[in-house]
Design brief:
The protein is mainly β. It folds into four domains: 6-62, Beta Barrel (OB fold (Dihydrolipoamide Acetyltransferase, E2P)); 73-133, Nucleic acid-binding proteins (OB fold (Dihydrolipoamide Acetyltransferase, E2P)), CATH 2.40.50.140; 148-205, OB fold (Dihydrolipoamide Acetyltransferase, E2P) (Beta Barrel); 210-275, Arc Repressor Mutant, subunit A (Orthogonal Bundle), CATH 1.10.10. 12% of the residues lie in helices and 38% in strands. The chain has three helices and 18 strands. The chain has helices spanning 213-226, 239-246, 250-262, and strands at residues 6-16, 19-23, 29-33, 46-53, 59-62, 73-82, 85-89, 96-99, 112-119, 126-129, 148-156, 160-165, 169-174, 187-195, 201-204, 230-231, 266-269, 272-275. A hairpin with a 2-residue loop joins strand 1 and strand 2. The radius of gyration is 25 Å and the shape is elongated.
């Protein structure tokens, strides 16, 4: 079986004038056109290729790497809008189609959108949708408190930034927990901070509890080295200044400098913190 919209590891079975024919373990074949054929190969070699439909809706393989895969969310740019829908640049020769029925609002050329790629059961075409709510659910969660997770930022609300977690669930990063630049389409790591009784997920961008101490201490120490061994910050500093300099909360900062102080890596003075000479972490 060859999975369209995904990477497949296929065996080279024939070399023809139009390219290599590749075969799956079940005997299904697909063409890798000449422009994507590796310079050196042998019949029987296994190639990892991405498979999708070409301009004539025929299955084809490519060595190009798309910006997203089937059953994933991505942040893509509209390169064309015509009478049948919108077309997105996803890194391949043929653009990814978004029917009008799958557009939350009418898409505009040149704009970027968070979309989900899937295989349409009726047309057997790879299409995208930016009606993203129907592709995520918190009914059956696959994450637990403290888990490290992959995030895609989707929109700003009055409470904070909504995110998609692991291409499966919806979460929220509260504004009070954000100490870095955020924007729609940003992909980054995060952590499950809390799972509420209704399965809503609170997300943090830094590790929680004891896990935060070591990376925080490392970050503060590196910032000290980058600033000549001194930072004009201490446990009485304005939280805004701490956030601006280190992109962390004052509470996290105090834990971090506490760790460094106990390890005799820094001195805490009235005017700030300083590296103790002949130390390294």
């Amino acid at each position: 079986m060859i999975e369209l919209g995904n990477y497949n590891e296929l065996k080279i079975v024939r070399d023809t004038s139009v390219g290599l024919f590749l075969e799956s373990e079940t005997g299904a074949e697909i063409l890798l056109p000449n422009k994507y054929v590796p310079k050196v190969f042998e019949i029987g070699d296994i190639l990892k290729v991405f498979c999708y439909l070409d301009h004539d809706e025929r299955p084809v393989a490519t060595s190009l790497e798309p910006f997203m895969k089937r059953n994933e969310f991505g942040f893509l740019k509209v390169v064309e809008v015509n009478k049948i829908g919108a077309f997105l640049d996803w890194g391949l020769e043929k653009h990814l189609f978004v029917p009008f029925r799958e557009q939350r609002d009418k898409m505009k050329e040149g704009q970027w959108y968070v979309v989900f790629c899937y295989l349409d059961d009726l047309s057997f075409r790879l299409v995208a949708s930016n009606k993203i709510d129907k592709f995520i659910s918190n009914e059956n969660l696959t994450v637990r408190t403290g888990d490290k997770i992959k995030l895609l930022v989707t929109r700003l609300t009055d409470l904070g930034w909504e995110v998609i977690i692991n291409n499966l669930h919806r979460g929220l990063v509260f504004s009070s927990d954000i100490f870095q630049h955020m924007a729609v389409g940003l992909q980054l790591d995060g952590y499950v901070k809390k799972i509420r009784s209704d399965n809503k997920i609170d997300v943090a961008l830094q590790p929680q509890g004891e896990k935060v101490l070591e990376p925080t201490a490392q970050k503060i120490f590196q910032a000290l080295k980058d600033h000549g061994g001194f930072l004009p910050l201490h446990d009485k500093s304005d939280p805004v200044e701490i956030s601006k300099t280190l992109q962390m909360s004052k509470k996290t900062f105090k834990k971090g400098i506490g760790t460094l102080y106990k390890a005799r890596q820094i001195e805490i003075k009235i005017d700030g913190i300083r590296i103790v000479e002949n130390t390294d972490i």
